[in-house]
Design a protein that fits this description.
The protein is α/β, with parallel strands linked by helices and 442 residues long. A hairpin with a 2-residue loop joins strand 4 and strand 5 (111-112). It has helices at 23-32, 49-58, 89-105, 116-121, 136-143, 148-157, 174-188, 206-217, 239-245, 250-262, 285-304, 310-334, 337-352, 368-372, 410-421, 437-441, and strands at residues 37-43, 62-72, 79-86, 107-108, 111-112, 126-129, 162-166, 192-194.
Length: 442
């Protein structure tokens, strides 16, 4: 394909306050319109990244990954919009670092902001778009101030990777800005790029979008005081529509394609990276698991078979030993011996340090190895629980123990795990929010 325009600015439903676009529907629609690539730039986050990346590849569309961000101006207290797009894995890591820092250190009135100094530290592998009317260069042009110092700052941070952004969405001051921006770009030899700041798929979706914005901000649709920041032109225009809209600025169209070609982020999905469990010298992790599980089962059987005669004990122990051997073979074959040892380790630590731990629930309670290691306190053979519900060689997936810690001691356990295995190897699961019906009603 030889595209003549690529959409590089697009928000999904993960930009909670200003988009109604769902990723699966987006990709189906984009494929129907023959868009060969799409740029994801949700507001200040990468929440849609995995879904967007997978769906794009599924539909034969090249994903261009980025984010719309805000730059804090300490002198005026204002913020300026701009976008960053990932060229490669280095860019992705730098963008992730910037977004993280904006949430941890850059909060201004409840919104994450970036400082210009942070951009200088993390600009490698990234392409910057100026933010059009809402960027610092745009604000300077419209206010009659000299944009040259700002322009030079961007060029130094993003050499040959900074573009002046142009939009024609029917919003206030866009044409005034556009003429000044094109003149500035021509004078300084800076490339321009056309975007459509997409918030919904079809022009007819504008009403639904406006309703969503009002829900988010607590306004009524007919409230004359509510800000009108969007227009019905911010839909996923076809290539032919964009060619007609920017027919007088073909280089702005060409540069959208050039940027998409420059952005080639490849992400490795579906691989698991477990911390190494420290085992005694002379043993590997598989041998150590077998040893610990065998010793642990012996302790359990000593209680279960107390008072039995020799023959009765042998008969009672046989199914346990057979089940243990079967489970251990599966665990080792699937590559998860370290996982069991790590979970057992922090559960033992919790019990030793007075943090109450539940007896186990979910499919993990079907594992005799877990029972032997005291991860769980439920005898799976007594209750006829199936190990295959937890781990099954025919359906390879990470094991997942549901462990209940006392709320007051949970943070101590997390700190222990982070200190023992390294903070860079420990994270908590996030749930990304989108405005579903229940949230709207609430």
């Amino acid at each position: 394909m030889n595209p003549r325009f690529i959409h590089l600015r697009l928000h999904t439903e993960y930009s909670l306050q200003d988009s109604v676009i769902r990723v699966p529907e987006l990709m189906q629609f984009a494929r129907q319109q023959a868009h060969p690539a799409l740029g994801l730039t949700d507001q200040g986050n990468l929440f849609a990244l995995v879904k967007f990346y997978k769906q794009a590849h599924k539909h034969g569309i090249k994903p261009v990954i980025g984010a719309d961000l805000r730059l804090h101006d300490p002198e005026s207290g204002q913020f300026h919009a701009f976008s960053l797009l990932c060229r490669d894995l280095t860019g992705y890591r730098n963008l992730s670092a910037l977004i993280t820092r904006s949430f941890l250190e850059g909060q201004q009135r409840g919104s994450p902001m970036l400082e210009r100094a942070w951009l200088r530290e993390h600009s490698d592998g990234l392409i910057a778009l100026s933010g059009a009317v809402h960027g610092d260069v745009g604000h300077a042009l419209l206010a009659g101030r000299d944009p040259e110092p700002l322009l030079e700052s961007w060029r130094q941070m993003f050499p040959e990777r900074f573009y002046i952004e142009l939009q024609r969405t029917g919003r206030a001051q866009e044409e005034q800005y556009l003429h000044a921006a094109v003149e500035l770009a021509a004078r300084r030899g800076i490339p321009v790029v056309a975007t459509n700041d997409v918030r919904f798929l079809r022009q007819g979706d504008f009403g639904a979008h406006e309703a969503r914005v009002c829900i988010q901000e607590g306004h009524a649709l007919n409230d004359p005081r509510r800000p009108h920041r969007y227009s019905d032109q911010q839909y996923l225009r076809s290539e032919s529509e964009m060619l007609e809209l920017f027919s007088d600025l073909p280089e702005a169209l060409d540069n959208s394609v050039e940027i998409a070609r420059r952005c080639n982020l490849g992400l490795q999905m579906g691989e698991n990276y477990l911390p190494a469990y420290p085992v005694p010298d002379g043993l590997d992790v598989e041998q150590f698991l077998r040893e610990q599980a065998t010793v642990g089962l012996q302790r359990r059987l000593a209680v279960l078979c107390a008072g039995m005669s020799g023959a009765e004990r042998d008969a009672a122990e046989k199914p346990y030993r057979e089940r243990l051997a079967l489970e251990l073979d599966v665990i080792v074959k699937m590559g998860f011996p370290g996982y069991f040892l790590i979970v057992a380790d922090f559960i033992h630590w919790a019990r030793q340090h007075g943090v109450p731990v539940g007896p186990g629930r979910g499919s993990g309670a079907g594992s005799l190895v877990a029972y032997a290691l005291e991860i769980t306190d439920l005898d799976p053979l007594k209750y006829h629980l199936l190990f295959e519900r937890f781990l099954n060689p025919e359906r390879v997936s990470m094991p997942d123990f549901d462990v209940d810690f006392c709320m007051e001691g949970r943070d101590r356990v997390i700190d222990y795990v982070a200190e023992r295995y390294g903070r860079e190897r420990v994270s908590q699961i996030i749930t990304y929010g989108s405005m579903a019906a229940r949230a709207v009603v609430r």
